[in-house]
UniProtKB/TrEMBL annotation:
Signal sequence residues: none
Reactions the enzyme catalyzes: 2 H2O2 = O2 + 2 H2O
UniProt source species: Scopulibacillus cellulosilyticus
Family annotation (SUPFAM superfamilies): Class I glutamine amidotransferase-like (SSF52317), Heme-dependent catalase-like (SSF56634)
Function: Decomposes hydrogen peroxide into water and oxygen; serves to protect cells from the toxic effects of hydrogen peroxide.
Lineage: Bacteria, Bacillati, Bacillota, Bacilli, Bacillales
Name used for this protein in its record: Catalase
Length: 682
C-alpha cells in the first residue's frame, strides 16, 4: 500500500508541474475570452473620479463573485442582530438636510447586525477577524444603511480587488481549510503581493480583531461620505460608533479556547444583555472636513486604507443608539436583512472612494441571488416605515398587490402617478460634483503611500498591545507553510517597523530584515485601547465556592458587586444548592465542566470548608488560567489560602484583603480595569 501511495503521489506531482508550466503561458481574460490588460483598477473618469458602469470587466468579476455562494452570505455569514433606537443630541442642520439628524426629540428605529467576515455561518465567533457593524435606520424619508466594520480602514483601495482578497482569506480551494482564519498561505501571499493591505493588517493583528463583545467594540463607516445641507453646501464626513462601555478585547489564548467552549459567545452575550435590561449603547460620532480642505492632509481622504487621525480631525459626538429588543426570529430578521451602502436619504451622499463606488454596485447584485430576486425590500425586516410608491412590478417574492393598468411613466391614464418629488418636496438630488478626466484604469498617485499610517498605528500602541501584535504575526505566519511567503511578509513589514518585523522574523524562522524602517514618528493616542473607557457594568464574575462558606461575608460582597452592575455566577462541583456555614445557601449556575474561566471577566475565589480534593484541582486550573489571561482575581476566606498555596499573591489585579469593606472596594477597582497587563513584567 505504501508503494502504491508513493506512485500516486509522484503522478500527482508530475501533473502539478505540468499545470504550473501551462499556467505560465496563460493570459487573463473575461469569461467571454477577451484578454484583459489591467486587473488592479476599476475604470474611472480621471484618477480620482467615480467608477464607470461601462467597466464590463469589473461588473463581470464582481457579479461572479457576488453569486458564488448560496444561500448564506459570501462574507459576513456568521452574524447576530438586535433592534433599537437612535436619538440625536443636537441638530446637524448646519451640515446635512437628513431629517433624522435634525430634531433631538425624535427617536429613529434601528436594526443592527454584527458579524465576522471570513467564516461560514457555522463558524466560531471569537476568531481573529474584522467584525461587521451594519446599522439600518428606519427614517421618515426612507431607510438609511450605515454598513461598516469595527476597524476604520480596509485591506484594499479599489473594489476590483475585493474578490481577490476574499478568495485569499477564505479556506483554500484545494482542501477547504482553514475555516474562519487568516493564518494560512494564500492570505499572507495576498498581503505580501498587495502592499496596500499593510495598514489593515496591523489592525487585524491587533487586539481589535478579537473583541470582548459586540457591546465593547467600535464601529466605523470606513468610507468617506458627504453631508449636504439645505443650501447645497457639502462636507466630507466619516462615521464612528463609540461604545459607552469602552473598547475591550480578549487575549488570543482566551479567544481560541472560547471558540471551543462556546462558539456562540458573542451572540449569547448580546442576547443576554438585552434580555436582562443592560441595553448596549453606542454614541454616534462624525468627523467633518470642509470641501476646500480636501487636499490639506498628508494622505488622501478618499483612500479607504487611511483613517483621519482624531487628533487632526476631532470626532464630534452627535447622538446615541440603544439596542433594546432581541429579534423574534433569527432567519426572518437577522438572515433576511439586506444592507446596502447605497441606501441613503437626502442629505447623505457618496464620494469617489473607489472601494465605495464598487460596493454601490455589488450589494444590490448580491441581494438578488441571496434573497431570490428584486423584491427583497418587501421582506418585513427590510421594509421602510414610510410609504413607498413606484412603477416596479412582479418578480420573485412580490408581496405588494398593485392595482390599475399603468406601470410606466410618463402616462396620462393615471395622471402620471406616482410623480417625481421636487427637491423642495424631499426628492433626493445627487451632489453636483464636477467630474472630468480621461477614462482610465489607474489609481491616484495620492493612494500610493501604504506604510505611513501602518507605522502611526504601531507608534500609537502601548507596550502590551505591541507585544500582542508581534505574537499575532508570529502565530499567523507560523501557520504559513511557504517559506518565501513568510520572508516576503517580513520584508514588507520592515517598511512599517524594523522592531516589529525583526521580532516576528525570529519567531517564524525567517531572515531578519536587512533594510527598511520608517521615519514616521507620528502617533494617535485615540487608536490605543489603553485610553478607552473602563467601567465595571455588565462584566461577569465567576464565583468559585463550595459548601461551608461564610454566608454573611460572601452575600455582602456579591450584593455590593451586583449593585455596581456586575454579574456574579456561582461555580461549584455540581448543580443544585450549596450551603454555607450558618445554613445560608446559593443556587449553583455552573459546574466546573459547564463553566470555564475564559467565559468570565474576573474570578472571586471563596472556597469552603467542605470541598473535595477534586474541587481544589478544578479550582486551581480556573485560577491559573484567569491569572495567565491577566484577569482580576479576588479571594477571601479559604480562597485566600488557596491563592497563596498556588503562589498567586501580591500581583497586579489580585486582591486579597481580610477587611471585607476594603476588599469590596479594591476588587471592584480591579474589575473595572478589565485586564492587568503589569503582570507581564513580573
Amino acid at each position: 500500500m505504501k508503494e502504491e501511495h508513493k506512485v500516486n503521489e509522484n503522478s500527482k506531482m508530475a501533473q502539478l508541474e505540468q499545470f504550473r508550466a501551462d499556467d505560465k503561458r496563460k493570459k487573463l481574460t473575461t469569461n467571454q475570452g477577451v484578454k484583459i490588460a489591467e486587473d488592479e483598477f476599476s475604470l474611472k473618469a480621471g484618477e480620482r473620479g467615480p467608477t464607470l458602469m461601462e467597466d464590463f470587466h469589473f461588473r463581470e468579476k464582481m457579479t461572479h463573485f457576488d453569486h458564488e455562494r448560496i444561500p448564506e452570505r459570501i462574507v459576513h455569514a456568521r452574524g447576530f442582530a438586535a433592534h433599537g433606537e437612535f436619538k440625536l443630541y443636537e441638530s446637524m442642520k448646519k451640515y446635512t438636510k437628513a431629517k433624522f439628524l435634525q430634531d433631538p426629540s425624535v427617536k429613529t428605529p434601528v436594526f443592527v447586525r454584527f458579524s465576522t467576515v471570513a467564516g461560514s455561518k457555522g463558524s466560531a465567533e471569537t476568531v481573529r477577524d474584522a467584525r461587521g457593524f451594519a446599522t439600518k435606520f428606519y427614517t421618515e424619508e426612507g431607510n438609511y444603511d450605515l454598513v461598516g466594520n469595527n476597524m476604520p480602514v480596509f485591506f484594499i483601495q479599489d473594489a476590483m480587488k475585493f474578490p481577490d482578497f476574499v478568495h485569499a482569506v477564505k479556506p483554500e480551494p484545494h482542501n477547504e481549510m482553514p475555516q474562519a482564519a487568516s493564518a494560512h498561505d494564500t492570505f499572507w501571499d495576498f498581503v505580501a503581493n498587495n502592499q496596500e493591505s499593510a495598514h489593515m493588517v496591523m489592525w487585524a493583528m491587533s487586539d481589535r480583531a478579537i473583541p470582548r463583545s459586540f457591546r465593547m467594540m467600535e464601529g466605523f463607516g470606513v468610507h468617506t461620505f458627504r453631508f449636504v445641507n439645505e443650501e447645497g453646501k457639502a462636507y466630507f464626513v466619516k462615521f464612528h460608533w463609540k461604545p459607552v462601555l469602552g473598547v475591550h478585547s480578549l487575549v488570543w489564548d482566551e479567544a481560541q479556547k472560547i471558540s471551543g467552549k462556546n462558539p456562540d459567545f458573542h451572540r449569547q452575550d448580546l442576547w443576554e444583555s438585552i434580555e436582562s435590561g443592560d441595553y448596549p449603547e453606542y454614541e454616534l460620532g462624525v468627523q467633518i472636513i470642509d470641501e476646500e480642505d480636501e487636499f490639506k492632509f498628508d494622505f488622501d481622504i478618499l483612500d479607504p486604507t487611511k483613517l483621519w487621525p482624531e487628533e487632526d480631525v476631532p470626532v464630534k459626538i452627535i447622538g446615541k443608539m440603544t439596542l433594546n429588543r432581541n429579534v423574534d426570529n433569527v432567519f426572518a430578521e437577522t438572515e433576511q436583512v439586506a444592507f446596502h451602502p447605497g441606501h441613503v436619504v437626502p442629505g447623505i451622499d457618496f464620494t469617489n472612494d473607489p472601494l465605495l463606488q464598487g460596493r454601490l454596485f455589488s450589494y444590490t447584485d448580491t441581494q438578488l441571488i441571496r434573497l431570490g430576486g428584486p423584491n427583497f425590500h418587501e421582506l418585513p425586516i427590510n421594509r421602510p416605515v414610510c410609504p413607498f410608491h413606484n412603477n416596479q412590478r412582479d418578480g420573485y417574492g412580490r408581496q405588494t398587490i398593485n392595482i390599475g393598468q399603468t406601470s410606466y411613466q410618463n402616462n396620462s391614464l393615471a395622471q402620471n402617478s406616482p410623480s417625481p418629488a421636487s427637491v423642495e418636496e424631499g426628492g433626493y438630488e445627487h451632489y453636483q460634483e464636477k467630474v472630468e478626466g480621461r477614462k482610465v484604469r489607474r489609481r491616484s498617485k495620492s493612494f500610493k503611500d501604504h506604510f505611513s499610517q501602518a507605522t502611526m498605528f504601531w507608534n500609537s500602541m502601548s507596550k502590551p498591545e505591541k507585544q500582542h501584535i508581534i505574537d499575532a504575526f508570529s502565530f499567523e505566519l507560523g501557520k504559513v507553510n511557504n517559506q518565501s511567503v513568510r520572508q516576503q511578509v517580513v520584508d514588507m513589514f520592515a517598511n512599517v517597523s524594523l522592531e516589529l518585523a525583526t521580532a516576528f522574523a525570529e519567531a517564524i524562522g525567517a531572515n531578519p530584515p536587512k533594510e527598511g524602517g520608517s521615519k514616521i514618528m507620528k502617533s494617535s493616542p485615540a487608536l490605543s485601547q489603553d485610553h478607552t473607557v473602563k467601567r465595571p457594568e455588565t462584566l461577569k464574575v465567576g464565583v468559585i465556592i463550595g459548601n461551608g462558606f461564610n454566608t454573611a461575608d460572601v452575600t455582602d460582597i456579591l450584593k455590593s458587586l451586583q449593585a455596581k452592575g456586575v454579574y456574579t455566577e456561582i461555580i461549584s462541583e455540581q448543580l443544585g444548592k450549596i450551603k454555607g456555614s450558618d445554613d445560608g445557601e446559593f443556587d449553583v449556575n455552573h459546574t466546573f465542566l459547564t463553566g470555564e474561566s475564559v467565559l468570565f471577566d474576573a474570578l472571586y475565589v471563596v472556597g469552603g470548608s467542605g470541598v473535595s480534593k477534586k474541587f481544589r484541582q478544578y479550582a486551581s486550573c480556573f485560577i491559573h488560567e484567569a491569572y495567565h489571561h491577566f484577569k482580576p482575581i479576588g479571594a477571601t476566606h479559604e480562597g485566600e489560602k488557596w491563592l497563596k498555596a498556588e503562589g498567586i499573591k501580591n500581583s497586579p489585579g489580585v486582591v486579597i484583603e481580610k477587611d471585607i469593606k476594603g476588599f469590596k472596594e479594591s476588587f471592584l477597582d480591579a474589575i473595572s480595569a478589565h485586564r492587568h497587563w503589569d503582570r507581564q513584567e513580573i
